[in-house]
Amino acid sequence: MEIKQQLRMSQQLVMTPQLQQAIKLLQLSRLELIEEVRRELDDNPVLSEDEPGPRPRSKEAEDSAREIRQEALFERDGRTEEGRSTEKAAREVDWEKFLENRTLQQSAQGTGSSNYEDLPPIEQNLTKPRNLHDHLMWQLQMSDFTETERRFAELVIGNLDDQGHLDLKGIDRPDGTRTSDLTVDDLAEEAGLHPDDAPLVLEMIQNFDPVGVASRDLQECLLIQAKALGFSDDDHEVRIIRDHLVHLEKHNYQAIAREMKISLEEVYEAAKEIQSLESRPARNFTDQDDRSVGITPDVYVIKDGNDFVVVDNDRGVQKLFINESLTKRLMQDPKAKEFVGEKLRNAQWLIRAIEQRRKTIIRVAECIVEKQREFFEKGVAFLKPMILRDIAEAVGMHESTISRVTTNKYIHTPSGLFELKYFFNSSIRRVASEDIASESVKQAIKKMIEGEDKSNPLSDQAIVKMLEKQEGIRIARRTVAKYREMLGILASSKRKRVF
């Protein structure tokens, strides 16, 4: 073995902190960018959100300019020096009286109920969406439960799922194992309640508003509501829910009539009553942690004559500037020069990165508009197949950069609000034409189902034939089923309406 030196040349990409920051800003959503800007404003003293004004002039220059302006005004009006003095004094007196009168008026109004100090704090005027948990806890406080019954009820309310049903299933542990399912008796034991009393307390909770809450499955939920409406155990509605719910879900009314030995008309009438019941007690309540958030577009597409113009939306995003006066004062301290220099470089890089992000988003959006022009003119049915590589090659960027630009970025168009990723679709070949985007096929399927005969809904195979005949699109039945499920549309057997 011997040790020797060798000279070798190679190329490699070095991720500088500035480059890392630019990539990070590029993939941030609009809200995340606003938060990042606020964080940088707090951390970097040389950054400012106030645009620097024009350089101040000397006092002599200001006085001279003021005199020139006054002379020009008075010469235009033909006033004498004496008149100017009199008018100047009059203006000063008028302003003093005006301000004095304003003060007296505000003092007089302050004695009434409109004084800001007499108003309640702004926190008392805020509101929040209705929450099922809070609604049930309020009813629990109004009830005359014992202490152990109240603890049991709190455990029940705390184990409700998003639909308002009692969920006692086990959960997955980080190590891959699963906890065992709980029972009502387990909750009673934890609360110190006798197991024989638990069903009665649970029944009382299930009759809270909304009725059927805390039920353990759909059948129990519907039975609770039916009995609350006055139906007895012998009524057709209760018997169908209790013994024939599977047939009811499949709309197999003939089987229900045959097994219950009643007429088909009676089954229809009972099914109407059951359909009026609520299968999801939490439907009208909003979870605060899952409430809808308004989306602000990053760019707008505006039609100007025959052209589509892309305009960025800078509303809400603070513009950053260098605080030159503060920077100069800090640089006078020799001990702070290195610190201020580093902060100044970071500020300059941040401002450049934000501007580069803005230009990149606009550039990509303009390219999308150019390639999807028919979509913007005619609608979703004319959306063309497009992949990231198409835009990357057009704008001279890497596909990963296009992916970052289009993630969590939204564009407002004459057809609505869309995420930039929406315009990237896989292609489906027509029988004798150019390829069509998969999103257009989904919309075609949705339109067919919306216009179908509800008493005889279209099967997936029927949709396959209609797509080939009407649109020239040839796809497999399983593809139709997949797109239908992605659209949240039930199978034909569950879409059928008899009445």
Mean pLDDT: 78
Whole-angstrom Rg: 35 Å
User: How many helices?
Assistant: 22
Report how far apart the termini are: 91 Å
- Label the structural class: mainly alpha
The low-confidence parts are: 71-127
The succession of helices and strands, N to C, reads HHEHHHHHHHHHHHEEEHHHHHEEEEHHHH
Q: Please bin the fraction of helical residues.
A: 40-55%
Strand segment tally: 8
Task: Using the alpha-carbon principal axes, give the shape.
Answer: extended
Describe the structure.
The protein has helices spanning 17-27, 30-43, 59-77, 81-110, 132-141, 147-158, 184-191, 198-206, 218-228, 236-243, 245-249, 253-260, 264-275, 324-331, 337-371, 373-378, 388-395, 399-406, 438-450, 460-471, 477-486, 492-495; strands at residues 47-48, 299-304, 307-312, 321-322, 410-413, 416-419, 427-428, 436-437. The chain has 499 residues and is mainly α. Among the domains are: 132-275, no CATH class; 426-499, Homeodomain-like (Arc Repressor Mutant, subunit A), CATH 1.10.10.60. It has a 4-stranded mixed β-sheet with strand order 3-2-5-6. The radius of gyration is 35 Å and the shape is extended. The model is unreliable at 71-127 (pLDDT under 50).
Topology diagram in text:
Blueprint lengths: L16 H11 L2 H14 L3 E2 L10 H19 L3 H30 L21 H10 L5 H12 L25 H8 L6 H9 L11 H11 L7 H8 L1 H5 L3 H8 L3 H12 L23 E6 L2 E6 L8 E2 L1 H8 L5 H35 L1 H6 L9 H8 L3 H8 L3 E4 L2 E4 L7 E2 L7 E2 H13 L9 H12 L5 H10 L5 H4 L4
Parallel strand pairs: 2-5
Antiparallel strand pairs: 1-4, 2-3, 5-6, 7-8
Helix pairs in contact: 1-15, 5-6, 6-7, 6-8, 9-10, 10-13, 12-13, 17-18, 20-21
